[in-house]
Write a structure and sequence with these properties.
The chain is an all-alpha fold. It contains six helices and no strands. The chain has a single domain, classed as Orthogonal Bundle (434 Repressor (Amino-terminal Domain)). Helix 2 packs across helix 3. The radius of gyration is 28 Å and the shape is elongated.
């Protein structure tokens, strides 16, 4: 079972997320003073595709990205996929390797049979 990345956040169904994101897109469009036709043209989408997104009736990630870019809201995408400040690969490359150690097995005393 996966741990929740934000334990205090409520658990939402996919339908609830789609409705919430759609209403936020609608609010952003209205704040920008755009009607659906204008935003759909800017995003190179059909008006019905934009309406589906805004109404939470399923959409593609591509549609969401196009609409957010047309609204100048790419920062919302950065919140989904933040750039790592330090690359894990760089950390591994810069780490000094630990010196190799020999492992010794105790020897049987001379003259005794080892098996």
């Amino acid at each position: 079972m996966m741990d929740q990345p934000f334990p205090d956040s409520p658990v939402r169904s996919t339908d609830e997320w789609e409705a919430r994101i759609g209403s936020q897109v609608r609010a952003s469009r209205l704040d920008a003073g755009l009607d659906q036709i204008s935003l759909a043209r800017r995003a190179d989408l059909s008006t019905s595709t934009l309406q589906s997104l805004e109404n939470g009736r399923g959409s593609t990630l591509s549609t969401l990205v196009r609409v957010l870019r047309a609204l100048g809201a790419e920062d919302a995408l950065d919140a989904l996929a933040p750039a790592s400040a330090v690359s894990p690969i760089d950390v591994l490359r810069s780490a000094d390797p630990a010196p190799r150690r020999r492992v010794y097995r105790p020897r049987a005393p001379r003259g005794s049979s080892g098996s």
